[in-house]
Amino acid sequence: MEPAKPNYFTCTLGEAALAECHGDAGPPFSSIIDVVDQQAQRRPDEPAVGFARFHNGVQQASPSSSTDGPVTYGDLHRLSLGAARALTTSIGERVKTAGEVVGLLCGSSLEFVLTWLGLMRLGHPVLLLAPQLEPRAIKHLCHQLDARILVRDDLHEATAAKIGSSGIEVLGVPPYHPNGYSSSSGVSPMMQSAALAEPAFYFHTSGTSSGLASPVPQRHSMAGALPRLHEPACQSATFSTTPLYHGGLADCLRAWASGAMIWLFPDGECPLTARNITQAVDSARRKSVVPVTLFSSVPYVLEMLAEDADGLRLLASMDLVGVGGAALSVAIGDKLVRSGVNLLSRFGSAECGFLLSSHREYTADKEWDYLRVRVDADYLRFEPRESDGLWELIVQPRWPFRSKTNREDGSYATSDLFERHPHNANAWRYHSRADAQITLANGKKFDPSPMEAGMQSATPLLREVYVFGSGEPCAGALLFPQSGATSQSVLLAAVRDATRCLNAGVPGHARIEESMLVVVPSADGENQQVPKSSKGSFLRHQANVKFAALIEGAYAALPAEQAAASPVHVQDGDLLSVVADCFHRVMHRSVDPDRDLYQQGVDSIACIQIRKLMEAKKLVPSQHAALPLNVIYDQGTVTGLVAHLQRLRHEDQPGDRAGDDDDGDQLLCMMKSLASRHRLAPNVLRSSAAYMSSRDSSANAVLLTGATGFLGAHLLALLRQRQDVARIYCLVRASTKHEARDRVSACQVHRGFPTLPPPRGADDDDDEQPGAHCQQVVCLPFDLAKPHLGLAAGDTQMMLKEVTLILHSAWPVNFNLPLTSFGDQLSCLSELLALAVQSHARFCFVSSVAAVSSTDASHIAETISNDPLHAAPLGYARSKWVAERMCAEANCMLAQQQQQQQQQ
Hints:
This protein is an alpha/beta fold. It has 29 helices and 31 strands. Among the domains are: about 130 residues, 2-Layer Sandwich (GMP Synthetase, Chain A, domain 3), CATH 3.30.300.30; about 90 residues, Orthogonal Bundle (Non-ribosomal Peptide Synthetase Peptidyl Carrier Protein, Chain A), CATH 1.10.1200.10; about 220 residues, NAD(P)-binding Rossmann-like Domain (Rossmann fold, 3-Layer(aba) Sandwich). An eight-stranded mixed sheet has the order 4-1-12-11-13-14-15-16, with helices on both faces. Strands 8-7-5-6-9-10 form a six-stranded mixed sheet. One of its GO terms (molecular function) is phosphopantetheine binding. InterPro entries: ACP-like_sf, Adenylate-forming_Reductase, AMP-dep_synth/lig_dom, ANL_N_sf, FAR_NAD-bd, NAD(P)-bd_dom_sf, PKS_PP-bd, PP-bd_ACP.
């Protein structure tokens, strides 16, 4: 059978090195910047990249300079030049040489791409930092590369703030000009040099062996090794769920080198669930000018989609579905192939790029998990290992890209082990790593040895500890007792505190929860042994085979000690506290039961561990013992999760069936409860009279929220034109007053309005801006999560004296979020209502017809609804209904107070 012809999605660097892969594609790219610039010349109006965003109920593409569609290659060129110019101003003289490394802490977004390209245009190698890194790991990486500047986006401000005074200056991503620059005119010489400094940027290892990550350099020369395939068939767009700071960037470069387009999931903006992925792809397909037929992911994503009917249909609709980063389980892969999915395994590394794939004739060849070698031994070879019959992949000196070598002949031993196909000498199935690292199903890696040593040393009752988890959603540990006479309960109690202490010092994905501790029983009266090499290290392949039943049992059901125990009946009234305890044990902190769990930092690994803890407690009947993989994200809050568990408990009891009606009743009660919870406190009303005496009677000031949004920007522009408005206070989500003003000014320019003039007498002090309150527009940073919105006392006092009108237009327009995700917005509204009452200012809340769109009337009166059923069945609409009720109750309370004062 002839091998399948490669396309840009399947072509390895070895295949790309073959002359026939390039055809008449032109000379190789000289740098990553050259990829962007050449494609901007050849195809300026063709789409390059789009970022699905949850907005207005569906995902939207990241806007280019003039449209709401994907960013073209011409846009990418202009915008990256503009980003370089903005970064020059932002960084200024903080860096001394062009070759200084700059850290980047940013989610997958257009901001990431432009900052990355802009810094490289300036000659700065970019250290790409995963947001999941602990602050000490970020500091370690920056210090290793002498990176004294760290640029972060708004989503990761809190993480960057934890770095502290460590010689690293943290800067926000500057506002970028919406049209970029059409040429290099006015651009510094460094920007014109195409950023040929090496390395171009750095990935980093997971760093769990020592607790600290290590940088992996990526050179501009890698661009010359990329495949340049420009056939029409290659213009299909890719959708990648992998973040840019990991494999998503490789997906980008692979697409761009062939002039293709890529869509990316909005990492950090919403949880990675089957529903969200499906909606994101559907939206990308509607907006894309080229068909989205290629899907790139990690095993964890495919496992989620395989469990979801819509997700499975989505995968089957793709021409190719690529998986990499970790080994996909054979069961899941086979299921996908049986369901008509053209599944493609892709194998590579940060050190050597794209090495192998299982690209083939998909209709006849179903062996998706066997990687095919299309190059000779001068490029790649497999070295046999006598100990276990596996083969290690060796990347030879002729391979077109190697960021590092570890052998004297210039080759690179990958430590990746493979099984040979029984009949095809050029087909290999990935098995495991030769080193100690364990790779979970989501691609995250960790070294188990610190946990093994720490747990073993915690008690003399333990002889050995073996950590497992390769290819699984989370890690577990086999506990080998010194004596078979030690009971399981005693042994588990002995290691419990040590395990919790160890968990606190490792990344979240490397933690081991109590439900995954398995005591290994003796066999025929003899203690069982973990297979070891002559050096005393664990032979993990043999150990996984030997203890397969115990390991599979830990994931399929419960540890033996728990499975043997009688179910502990938990009353419905105690269910909330039991579920909350599961969250506390995994997160090592309490979570708010009524706040959105994703916004509280409950990540996918934590969800897996919490779900297993709940299953171990047998909180639901046996037919529901295996809870859905996404049950925690789907329910949104602890309260919603408890309600779901209660429904599962009672759904089979006649006359006591908890279904959709119960869910609706609970939501209606929650809406009323939220409106009541955020009502004004009596002391706010009492203090309102005191502020009246200190008001500036000549002042006519407006407080505006949402000035960086579409409506808010237009409101601000109108207010700026009014002669009777002395001052406009804009509350902006930013870290400093300077950043707040820059954001508002950039937004005004983007909407076609004049820029904000600089504050008279201001010298850019983050805490105080002399003369700032003499300006027409005063921009103040605020924080929804902080008391009094995090506003400085002096700013609050000034607004209490001056503000006569509050326009509240800031609200996240996201139809995918549940009602509980709007808790911070409701708290903000409560604070603004209090400010309005105390200052006796008029209050205008920008609501939505969605708050009453479910009414039966053909004409909807302009009145505030008292019935929560009138709101559309969306979290956004329900939050607007709650907000309207809060405004109505505040108005009623104030009227009652005024009436009482008149009667006195």
